[in-house]
Write a structure and sequence with these properties.
This protein has 192 residues and is an alpha+beta fold. 35% of the residues lie in helices and 24% in strands.
Length: 192
């Protein structure tokens, strides 16, 4: 993978395949500590202990279309090669949580990439699922929650061009405000 956002997309797609109806993606950046934490959490089918122990093995996959599963092993390697950490927790019938911590000033830290496009792509391709995207910088954060958008839309599908464009602009504006040191943003109120 060229950047971390593509790893997030791959793991979130695993959540979709696991039957999740809610996928939460959070990105927390601590600039002074040179630390970035990405958490992907779902309420999908989850994994038993045996699968959980094998999921970081590149020669293990539950998919029938190929014999290897490189997404999670590469993501783990990307975090650990920066001196960061990787943790995956799962329970059958509850869901899965993947947490990766990256040391951002390490020479081997991959670029973040376009998280906005990752989130918008996930929403556009899975309009019946709900996504929560949380972004924080040095303790200030905002949240974009499709459940709140859905309430305001009154039946308009999330994958309509205008809605996806609004979500993209909403995320980009809030990310820019936080990165420029703006005031803490409110959680999304779903205004369109």
């Amino acid at each position: 993978m060229e950047d971390l956002s593509l790893n997030v997309l791959d793991i979130a797609q695993n959540s979709v395949r696991a039957g999740a109806s809610l996928i939460e993606i959070s990105l927390e950046q601590e600039r002074a500590a040179h630390k970035q934490t990405i958490v992907i959490k779902d309420n999908g089918c989850g994994m038993d202990e045996e699968k959980l122990q094998r999921v970081t093995d590149p020669f293990f996959t539950t998919r029938t279309t190929r014999k290897v599963g490189l997404g999670i092993p590469f993501y783990r390697m990307a975090a650990e090669q920066t001196g960061g950490e990787f943790l995956i927790e799962s329970a059958v019938g509850v869901g899965t949580t993947v947490t990766a911590v990256f040391v951002t000033d390490h020479i081997d830290c991959m670029p973040l990439g376009d998280m906005t496009q990752t989130v918008v792509s996930l929403i556009g391709c899975n309009p019946d699922l709900d996504f929560i995207y949380s972004y924080s910088v040095d303790g200030k954060r905002f949240v974009a929650d499709t459940r709140q958008f859905r309430q305001q839309l009154e039946g308009v599908p999330l994958n309509t061009y205008e809605v996806l464009r609004f979500i993209e602009d909403y995320i980009n504006e809030n990310v820019s405000a936080l990165n420029e040191g703006g005031a803490e943003q409110k959680e999304s109120e779903g205004y369109l």
